C-alpha cells in the first residue's frame, strides 16, 4: 500500500484536475468582429426581387444611405449600434422599401454571437437574422434561421432548411437525464422534398422576439454549428454569461452540459449522420420582409385581420406604423474552434480550425460616410 502525504495528494489532485480541464474545455477563437464604424464594410445590400415572395422592396446601398434606412442609431450605453430600418413615411402600393444586408464572408463550423438591441415587429412584418449556404441552389447548402417571426409574435422561431434526407431528434424533454433544450420542437423534418418550405423548427421558451424583447433592451443570441448539432442560445440583456461578454465564449467546459444553461433549440440528426454535407459556406443575413406566404396564408385568422382585408393592403397604406420596424445591432462576432486537444463534445473535430472563405462578390466602396440616425 502506498501512502501519499497531504501535500503530495493535493498536488496530484491539482494535476489531475488540470488535465481534466484540458481534456474537457472546448475553446473558441474570434476570427471576425462586425461592429462599430467598419460594420458596413463587411456587408452588401441585396436589391433584387425578394426570393421569398414578400412585399418588401429591397434597396441598394445608395438608396439605403440617402433615405435613412441604414446607418447608426444613438445609444447611451453602446457606441455605434447599427441601424437597419424601412420606409415609414410613404404609401407604397408596389412594395415597402426595406433593407436586406448580406455578409461577404462565409463560415463552416463556428460559434456566432449576435448582440441584438432592437428588432422589427408588428403586423405585416417578417424580420429575420439567418445564415444562408452558398454555392448551390437553395437549400442544397442549407439555411439556419436564428431569429425569425411574423406579426406580433412574442417567442422566437428557429428553423433549419435542407434539400432532402434530414430529420432531427425531439430533444424537447429530458434526454439521458439532462435537459437538452428549453424551447419546443414543433417540426422534425428539415427537408424541402418531404416537408416543403416548413423546415424543422423550434419555438423559444420565453419572450425573446418582438415588442417584449425590445422592452427588455433585446439580448444576445449565440449559434453553434458542429457536425452533429446546431444549437441556439438566447440570453436576456442582463443575463448574458460573462465569458461571452469577455470575448471568450466557452459553451462546453464539461462533457455533461453547458454552464450557459439549456439552449432554446438543439437540432441533432435523428440518425447517426453529419450536418456537414447539408450546411456549408454559410453567410449571415439581416433583413426585414413584409407579408409573404407565411403571413398571407394566415392573415384572416391572425390578430391583425381586423386592420385590413389583406396584409399587402395594410402594409402599403399605413407607413407610420412601421417606424419601429428596425434592427439595432450592437455587433456580430464569429468564433471558430481552437484547441490542441483531441477530445471534445461528441462528433466535433476539435483538432481543425475551420478556415473562412471569402464569398466571391464584388466589394463595394468604403462606407465611412454612413449617416447616424
Q: Strand share of the residues?
A: 25-35%
> How many domains would you count in the coordinates?
1
Number of extended strands: 22
Please give the radius of gyration in angstroms: 22 Å
Keywords: Signal
Pfam families: GH16_XgeA
Protein name: GH16 domain-containing protein
Organism: Exophiala xenobiotica
Primary descriptors:
single chain, 373 residues, alpha+beta, Jelly Rolls, eight-stranded antiparallel sheet, 7 helices, 29% strand, disordered N terminus, ConA-like_dom_sf, Beta-glucanase-like
How does this model look, in words?
- With 373 residues, this protein is an alpha+beta fold.
- It has a single domain, classed as Jelly Rolls (Sandwich), CATH 2.60.120.
- It has seven helices and 22 strands.
- The strands form five sheets. Strands 1, 4, 5, 9, 17, 18, 19 and 21 form an eight-stranded antiparallel sheet that branches. Strands 2-7-20-10-11-12-16-15 form an eight-stranded antiparallel sheet.
- Strand 13 and strand 14 form a beta hairpin.
- The chain is globular and about 55 Å long.
- The termini are far apart.
- The N terminus is likely disordered.
- One of its GO terms (biological process) is glucan catabolic process.
- Keywords: Signal.
- InterPro entries: Beta-glucanase-like (IPR000757), ConA-like_dom_sf (IPR013320), Glycosyl_Hydrlase_16 (IPR050546).
Amino acid at each position: 500500500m502506498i501512502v501519499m502525504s497531504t501535500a503530495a495528494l493535493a498536488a496530484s489532485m491539482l494535476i489531475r484536475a488540470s488535465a481534466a480541464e484540458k481534456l474537457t474545455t472546448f475553446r473558441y477563437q474570434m476570427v471576425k468582429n462586425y461592429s462599430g464604424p467598419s460594420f458596413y464594410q463587411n456587408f452588401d445590400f441585396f436589391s433584387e426581387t425578394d426570393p421569398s415572395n414578400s412585399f418588401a422592396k429591397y434597396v441598394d446601398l445608395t438608396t439605403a444611405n440617402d433615405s435613412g434606412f441604414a446607418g447608426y442609431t444613438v445609444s447611451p450605453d453602446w457606441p455605434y449600434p447599427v441601424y437597419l430600418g424601412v420606409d415609414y413615411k410613404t404609401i407604397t402600393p408596389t412594395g415597402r422599401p426595406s433593407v436586406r444586408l448580406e455578409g461577404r464572408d462565409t463560415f463552416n463550423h463556428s460559434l456566432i454571437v449576435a448582440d441584438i438591441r432592437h428588432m422589427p415587429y408588428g403586423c405585416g412584418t417578417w424580420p429575420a437574422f439567418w445564415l444562408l449556404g452558398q454555392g448551390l441552389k437553395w437549400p442544397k447548402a442549407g439555411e439556419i434561421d436564428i431569429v425569425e417571426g411574423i406579426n406580433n409574435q412574442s417567442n422566437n422561431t428557429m428553423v433549419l432548411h435542407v434539400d432532402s434526407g434530414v430529420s432531427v431528434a425531439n430533444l424537447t424533454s429530458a434526454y439521458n437525464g439532462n435537459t437538452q433544450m428549453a424551447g419546443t420542437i414543433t417540426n422534425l423534418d428539415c427537408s424541402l422534398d418531404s416537408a416543403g418550405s416548413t423546415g424543422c423548427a423550434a419555438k423559444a421558451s420565453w419572450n425573446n422576439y418582438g415588442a417584449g424583447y425590445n422592452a427588455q433592451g433585446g439580448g444576445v443570441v449565440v449559434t453553434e454549428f458542429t457536425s452533429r448539432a446546431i444549437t441556439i442560445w438566447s440570453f436576456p440583456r442582463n443575463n448574458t454569461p460573462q465569458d461571452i461578454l469577455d470575448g471568450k465564449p466557452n459553451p462546453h467546459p464539461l462533457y455533461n452540459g453547458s454552464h450557459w444553461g439549456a439552449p432554446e433549440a438543439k437540432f441533432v440528426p435523428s440518425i447517426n449522420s453529419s450536418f456537414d454535407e447539408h450546411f456549408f459556406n454559410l453567410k449571415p443575413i439581416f433583413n426585414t420582409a413584409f407579408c409573404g406566404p407565411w403571413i398571407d396564408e394566415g392573415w384572416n385568422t391572425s390578430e391583425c385581420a381586423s386592420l385590413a382585408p389583406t396584409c399587402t393592403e395594410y402594409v402599403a397604406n399605413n407607413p407610420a406604423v412601421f417606424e419601429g420596424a428596425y434592427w439595432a445591432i450592437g455587433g456580430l462576432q464569429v468564433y471558430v474552434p481552437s484547441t490542441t486537444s483531441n477530445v471534445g463534445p461528441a462528433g466535433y473535430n476539435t483538432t481543425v480550425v475551420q478556415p473562412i472563405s471569402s464569398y466571391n462578390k464584388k466589394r463595394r466602396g468604403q462606407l465611412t460616410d454612413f449617416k447616424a440616425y
